[in-house]
TrEMBL record:
Name of protein: Rhodanese-related sulfurtransferase
SMART domains to which the protein is assigned, alphabetical: RHOD (SM00450)
Record lineage: Bacteria, Pseudomonadati, Pseudomonadota, Alphaproteobacteria, Rhodobacterales
UniProt cross-references to InterPro entries, sorted A to Z: GlpE_sulfurtransferase, Rhodanese-like_dom, Rhodanese-like_dom_sf
CDD domains for this protein: RHOD
Gene Ontology MF annotations: transferase activity
Top-level taxon of origin: Bacteria
Residue intervals of the Rhodanese domain: 24-112
Keyword vocabulary terms for this entry: Transferase
PANTHER family: FAD-DEPENDENT OXIDOREDUCTASE, PYRIDINE NUCLEOTIDE-DISULPHIDE OXIDOREDUCTASE
Organism per entry: Salipiger abyssi
Key word Transferase present: yes
């Protein structure tokens, strides 16, 4: 994990493996900031959706029980959202390096769309 001091807060950049391990242990909440269309087509099973276009840091829960880790398609939007959360007063915020593309590249499981039927299915 890489860390960067941003004002009074800390921005953490987690690797796909770090996110997958913490997510499997239920230690984090994974928040997808892609569009609803991107999420519907494919997403990490169990991730929550809060699109960048509708992001409101003040609506996020605290992180006393579980850490929040943001992700997007490539890591650009999730870093933007993480920085916005820091600007809103969060002390420590994380995002996943490389985004969903890196997740798929690392062969982590996700929910995809069967192009023949349009039905969701597990891709592992």
């Amino acid at each position: 994990m890489k860390t960067e001091q941003v004002g009074d807060g800390i921005l953490e950049t987690w690797t796909v493996d770090e996110v997958a391990e913490a997510f499997d242990k239920n230690e984090i909440v994974l928040v997808d900031v892609r569009t609803p269309q991107e999420f519907m087509f494919e997403h990490v099973e169990g991730a929550l959706l809060m699109p960048l276009a509708f992001f409101k840091a003040e609506k996020l829960p605290g992180q006393s029980d579980k850490r929040i880790v943001f992700h997007c398609g490539s890591g650009v939007r999730s870093e933007r959202v993480a920085r916005a959360a820091l600007d809103a007063g969060f002390g420590r915020v994380a995002h996943m390096e490389g985004g969903f593309g890196a997740w798929k590249g690392a062969k982590k499981p996700y929910i995809g769309t069967n192009m023949a039927t349009g039905a969701p299915h597990l891709v592992s």
